[in-house]
Amino acid sequence: MPPTLFIFSLLIFFSSHAAALDFCVANLKGPQGPAGFSCKTPAKVTVNDFVFTALTKAGNTSNIIKAAVSPAFVAQFPGVNGLGLSIARLDLAPGGVIPMHTHPGASEILIVVQGYILAGFISSDNSVYLKTLKKGEVMVFPQGLLHFQVNAAGIPAIAFPSFSSPDPGLQILDFALFGNNLPTMLIEKTTFLDEAQIKKLKAVLGGTG
């Protein structure tokens, strides 16, 4: 085969496979494994797989924590599959709070776009890093560390947290302790809280035992 024809054949081969290597839009109808979702057939991918509009709407803050998180993770936004990132919208009504929690699969960076948010995290040596953020300010929360956000003023606050994973995971400390069937006696021994307080929190958060 002449060299020019060989090179031309290679170009055709690689160009025909390029789209498949550029991205892996999630096939949400397929199974999800540790590596994420399988890829949607490239021929069925459209621009809408890479656009997410739901974050334009405020979340419902009529709840016990007066807060709402609207995620654009892989389950809602298939285009982020395999890209190592995702985003969400955080709405905090006056008095609102996102309780102490962790994201086992990702670091988080938070940008405030309205209001004031008191945010902080606790390092593994129990050092506390705490700051009241205003519009345009950004704070980062390292992967796996306990952190929280609280509305720091009497006006609604809005922020957009972004994550270093399309599926960052979430564990809320209060629900881990009081929102399941972990026996009250064990919680009492491991947290030093009294039985009455534990049962009160279980009643509020839906726990039993």
From TrEMBL:
Domain (Cupin type-1): residue spans on this chain: 53-199
List of residues binding oxalate: H103, E108
Leader sequence residues: 1-20
Gene3D superfamilies: Jelly Rolls
Keyword Protease: no
Gene Ontology CC: apoplast
Primary localization: secreted
UniProt KW Ribonucleoprotein keyword: no
Matches recorded under SMART domains: Cupin_1 (SM00835)
Annotated compartments: Secreted, Extracellular space, Apoplast
Keywords assigned by UniProt, alphabetized: Apoplast, Disulfide bond, Manganese, Metal-binding, Secreted, Signal
InterPro entries: Cupin_1, Germin, Germin_Mn-BS, RmlC-like_jellyroll, RmlC_Cupin_sf
GO molecular function: manganese ion binding
Disulfide bond residue pairs: C24-C39
Residues that coordinate or bind Mn(2+): H101, H103, E108, H147
Protein origin, superkingdom: Eukaryota
Similarity-based family: Belongs to the germin family.
Listed name of the protein: Germin-like protein
Organism: Actinidia chinensis var. chinensis (Chinese soft-hair kiwi)
Lineage: Eukaryota, Viridiplantae, Streptophyta, Embryophyta, Tracheophyta
